[in-house]
Design goal:
Elements (H helix, E strand, L loop, with lengths): L12 H11 L7 H14 L3 E5 L2 H11 L7 E5 L4 H8 L4 E5 L21 E7 L8 H11 L2 E5 L7 E2 L2 E2 L6 E5 L12 E5 L5 H8 L5 H5 L19 H12 L1 H24 L13 E2 L6 E3 L3 H13 L15 H6 L1 E2 L4 H9 E3 L8 H18 L1
Parallel strand pairs: 2-3, 2-4, 3-12, 4-5, 5-8
Antiparallel strand pairs: 1-9, 6-7, 6-10, 8-9, 11-13
Helix pairs in contact: 1-8, 2-8, 3-4, 3-6, 9-13
The structure holds pyridoxal-5'-phosphate (PLP).
The site of pyridoxal-5'-phosphate has 14 residues, from helix 3 and helix 4.
Amino acid sequence: MIPFNKPHMTGRELHYIAASHAKGHLAGDGEFTRKCHAWFEAKLGTKKALLTHSCTAALEMAAILCDFSPGDEVIMPSYTFVSTANAFVLRGGVPVFVDIREDTLNIDENLIEGAITDKTRAIVAVHYAGIACEMDKIMEIAQRHGLVVIEDAAQALFSTYREKYLGTIGHIGCLSFHETKNIISGEGGALLVNDERFVERAEIIREKGTNRSQFFRGQVDKYTWVDIGSSYLPSELIGAFLYAQLEEGEEIIERRRQICSSYRKQLSILEEEGCCNLPKKEGEGIKGNGHMFYLILPDLDSRSRLIAYLKERGILSVFHYVPLHNSPAGKKYARICGKMDFTVNLSERLLRLPLYHDLKDEEVLMIAETVREFFRKKA
Ligand SMILES: *Cc1c(COP(=O)(O)O)cnc(C)c1O
C-alpha cells in the first residue's frame, strides 16, 4: 500500500533530543528552541520567530495581537483549515468568507475590498498548497484600510513570492510543523512577527501574559502578569526535533519539488486531453515548496471513482477541505460575502496524490500510470 503521507526523519532528531535530555533543560526556550528561532530569523528574514505548539496556537496568538473585540471581522477564504477561522472566533471575531481563485484555490484578492466594513480589522491570506496568494495586492488593500495581514503559511515554509519567503510578507505569519507538512516536529508551529510593533507583546502572550522573556534576558528584575496570554511555547524536546529537520530543510523541499515536477510531466497529457486539470504552473515571481500535488477532476463522482480506483490498486489519495461556510460552526459563527461558487465547486473536485520525501521515483511513475489508466478505461 502506498500511503498518502509518510513523515520523513533526517536521523538526527533523536540525537538532539538526547542532547537536551542530557542537559536537563526540558521546558520551553532552551538552546534548540533558540537555535530554531535564530534559524527562522536569519533564513527567512523575519523580525521575531517564536515556536508554538501548532499553527493553530500561532493563529490564536495572531488574533490576540490584532486586539479582536466581539463583532470585529476578519476576511479569509472558506476553503481553509478550521483553525484559520476558529482562532478569531475564540476572541469573539466574525470570519467573513470570500470566494477563491479558480487557478490557485487561494483567496480571490479582487473580492477582498468588497467585503470590508467598518468592523473589519484583518485579512488572512492562506497560501494553499504552498503557493502564494497575490500578496502585493493584499498588502496594498490592507495599507489603504489600516488592516492587519496575517499569513496562514502552515503549508508554505520555503515557498516564495517575489523573492520573499511566505510568512514574512504580512504583518504576522503562522507556520505549521504538523507531521503532514514538509518540515515536521509531530505537532508544532511558529509565529513569525514581521512588524516591530507586535514583537514585545507576542512574547508576553506566549508566556501566559507575563514578561518572563524580558526577565530571562535581564531586562526586568522580576516578572509579573502584564497582559492576556496563554502557554503557547513548546517543550525543548520539540525544538530539538525541529532543529534536525530545519538543518535538512532545503533538501527535503528539493525532493518534494522533484516529485511534483515528475507528477506534472507524467500527467500533463491528461490536462491536454481535457480529462482533468493540474495545479497552476509556478512562475511570475511565485515558487512553491512541493507541499502538494493535486488533480481537479470533472466532478464529485469522477473524483470518488478515482479515489476508489487508486485504493483498489494500493494507492491512497485523499480529498481536502470541506468549505467552512457550510460547516455547522461556520454557519453559526461566520458569514459569507458574495458567492462561493469556486469554493464549493473546486472543493468537490480536488484530489491529492501521495507526496512525501521517501516516495520513490518508480512509485511516482506507477501512481501516474494508474491515474492515466483510469482515464483510458473510462474513455
Ligand atoms: C495544517 C494547517 C493548519 C493547522 O496547523 P496545526 O499545526 O496542525 O495547528 C492551519 N492552516 C492551514 C492552512 C493548514 O494547512
